[in-house]
Specification:
Elements: H1 11-26, E1 34-37, E2 47-50, E3 53-56, E4 61-67, E5 81-88, E6 95-99, E7 102-103, E8 105-106, H2 116-126, E9 136-141, H3 145-149, E10 159-160, E11 162-163, H4 178-192, E12 200-204, H5 207-215, E13 223-225, H6 230-239, E14 244-250, H7 251-254, H8 272-282, H9 287-295, H10 299-309, H11 311-337, E15 344-348, E16 354-357
Parallel strand pairs: 6-9, 7-11, 12-13, 12-14, 14-15
Antiparallel strand pairs: 1-2, 3-4, 4-5, 5-9, 8-10, 15-16
Helix pairs in contact: 1-2, 4-6, 6-11, 8-9, 9-10, 10-11
Length: about 375
């Protein structure tokens, strides 16, 4: 079996493993608890991935289950059960994918949200096994997907009802682990060594930010994905002579920086409720309204509630959050590397809109011409 070690496999890989086991059952083959998968097109050697169970459902249908293991990564999907229900179908497509419970779909179309890699992984491992003229239908199910999706920013990109299959590679990128930091530092160094250097830099938290930033007019060449290691990357950029720097990410993540938390993975540090309510109190929020802000399940929910009740205060609070992030980052850089760099902060919400822009970030988002 493949050694999971410190770096395990992404969600699409485990979906493909369960799907292959389900197809084997439909073909009348005995259950195999280790499924050989080619992890990319053209791969010569398959990896063996464990599958927990397969159950026939009668009438040409069966169900297979795998458990997602991301290795040592502190990942949302670690230990997550994945079910794939398979049956023979009809129509033109040899492989048809359906979103079951817990799978993310696009709100405007209802179509399953999956990356080209996720689809390709299923095609290269399943289509060669299909009998001639056979058509296979897979319903993908993640029982806890709907609940876990609330801890992501999928809704910011129009994905609802569950987790999206958006992995673009087999191995997990450990955004909370030291490997992610070293990769980002290496990429920063590479840019510094180019003839054009790296005078302007945007540190982006997460894939969603990478997708949204160019749509808001920021050059892709200036984007650097940083995962959760914001503090060390800020310090490295400042020490290297970056002259203008922007932090760009989902508000529920960057809010932590306003409280001096510079490693943002939720398993290691949180404090969002504490930071949010402290800043709201400084803006004058009191009594029951402040208590409701504290009790809200998410930053998104808290701010929507506040905007409905006290829109002017909510507007001031958004600005204070961005300003506090910028001030904390400036202080951090002054104290750690003696830099006078003043980073900007721009935060987006789940509606794909800029939620707050600090004064140092206004350079990156100039107002439209009248």
């Amino acid at each position: 079996m493949a050694e999971l070690g410190a770096s395990g496999y992404t969600l699409p890989v485990w979906v493909a493993a369960a799907a292959r086991a389900a197809l084997q059952q439909l073909l009348g083959e005995p259950f195999c608890d280790e499924q050989p998968l080619l992890l990319e097109r053209g791969a010569q050697q398959p990896e063996l991935l464990p599958v927990q169970a397969v159950a026939p459902l009668g009438e040409g249908r069966c169900l297979a289950m795998a458990v997602c293991e991301g290795g040592a990564a502190l990942d949302l999907t670690r230990g997550l059960m994945i079910w794939v229900e398979a049956h023979w179908g009809a129509g033109e497509q040899r492989l048809q994918l359906m979103a079951g419970e817990g799978l993310g779909v696009f709100a405007d179309s209802g179509e399953l949200c999956l990356s080209s890699y996720a689809r390709e992984l299923l095609e290269i491992n399943l289509l060669p096994l299909l009998p001639a003229q056979a058509k296979l239908v897979l319903q993908l199910i993640i029982p806890r997907g709907r609940v876990l999706a609330e801890r992501t920013s999928n809704a910011a990109f129009g994905v609802v009802e569950g987790l999206a299959l958006i992995g673009n590679q087999a191995k997990v990128q450990q955004s909370a682990g030291p490997d992610a930091l070293q990769q980002a530092l290496a990429e920063l160094q590479r840019r510094l060594e180019t003839p054009e250097g790296c005078k302007e830099l945007v540190l982006v938290v997460g894939e969603n930010g990478l997708n949204l930033a160019p749509q808001l007019g920021i050059s892709e060449a200036k984007l650097l994905k940083v995962g959760n290691w914001l503090g060390p990357l800020l310090a490295a950029a400042a020490a290297a002579g970056v002259e203008r720097l922007l932090l760009f990410g989902y508000h529920g993540k960057l809010l932590k920086l306003a409280g001096g938390i510079f490693h943002t993975h939720h398993h290691l540090a949180d404090g969002r409720a504490e930071v949010l309510t402290a800043l709201a109190a400084l803006e004058g929020l009191q009594g029951e309204a402040l208590h409701k802000l504290w009790e809200a399940a998410t930053v998104e929910q808290a701010m929507v509630q506040l905007e409905l009740q006290q829109p002017l205060l909510a507007q001031r609070l958004r600005r204070r959050i961005a300003t506090s992030i910028e001030q904390r980052c400036s202080t951090y850089l002054r104290e750690t590397v003696g830099s006078s760099l003043k980073p900007g902060a721009a935060l987006f919400d789940r509606s794909r809109r800029l939620w707050a822009v600090g004064s140092q970030a206004e350079f990156w988002f100039p107002p439209p011409c009248p």
